[in-house]
Design brief:
The protein is of the alpha+beta class and about 220 residues long. The protein has 9 helices and 5 strands.
């Protein structure tokens, strides 16, 4: 059904232009992205079906290629579009850090790490290597694992930190379950890394655990 034939309250593009993108529902935003529906299913109906089936935009945007393309009306071209859109959003959020601005607060760090780690379906352990003014030298995804965890090797972390001449580091990893609460294993690992890096005079400023929409700081919890 052509966009001009939809009821007024189901014309997402016109609503966006008139009232702004934040006035649209998840399904309306998705309908603009999809542009067209499938045989027998107008684009708004398809958008609602997809948000329901995947449990919202997050589930859709983080679905694997196999899961995404298994849905009638979707395919590799739209999957590539979704991945490109997500990466563009990450890069926009990362821009101040890539320009060498210092991390001025835990909130700066939370936003950055959530944009990088918040959508992975598997566990990833990463480091933000900083100079002595807390400017980001490099963001590095150091270890990847399954949903049950990632093996982290202090010797390799120390090597990476020395390679970029870091003065400090902030660690982060995601919990694919969505629950950001740190485990005792997270606390123990942080202390081991802090001891190892302390031997080469590199400070560990924090270790953050990324869940779905929540980032918890071990430093703020007094667990360092």
């Amino acid at each position: 059904m052509p966009n001009t034939h939809w009821p007024e309250d189901e014309r997402p593009r016109e609503r966006l232009l008139a009232h702004g993108a934040n006035s649209l529902s998840d399904a309306e935003l998705l309908a603009i992205f999809l542009r067209t529906g499938t045989a027998g299913m107008p684009v708004m109906a398809l958008a609602r079906h997809l948000t329901d089936s995947f449990g919202g935009l997050r589930g859709l945007m983080t679905a694997s290629q196999r899961q995404f393309c298994a849905v009638k009306g979707l395919g590799t071209a739209k999957y590539a579009q979704v991945q490109a859109a997500m990466e563009m959003a990450r890069r926009v959020m990362d821009e101040p850090l890539r320009q060498g601005d210092p991390l001025r607060s835990p909130e700066d760090t939370r936003r950055f790490l959530n944009s990088r780690l918040g959508t992975y379906p598997h566990e990833v352990f990463a480091g933000l290597f900083l100079d002595n003014r807390h400017r980001v030298i490099r963001y590095q995804e150091l270890f990847r694992g399954t949903i049950d965890g990632a093996a982290v090797y202090p010797r390799e972390v120390v090597r990476q930190a020395l390679e970029v001449n870091a003065a400090a580091v902030i660690f982060a990893h995601n919990h694919p379950s969505g629950v950001a609460e740190p485990s005792q294993a997270d606390v123990s690992l942080t202390r081991r890394l802090k001891e190892a890096l302390g031997l080469v005079d590199i400070r560990v400023l924090d270790h953050m655990v990324v869940g779905h929409g929540e980032v918890i700081s071990l430093a703020e919890r007094g667990l360092m």
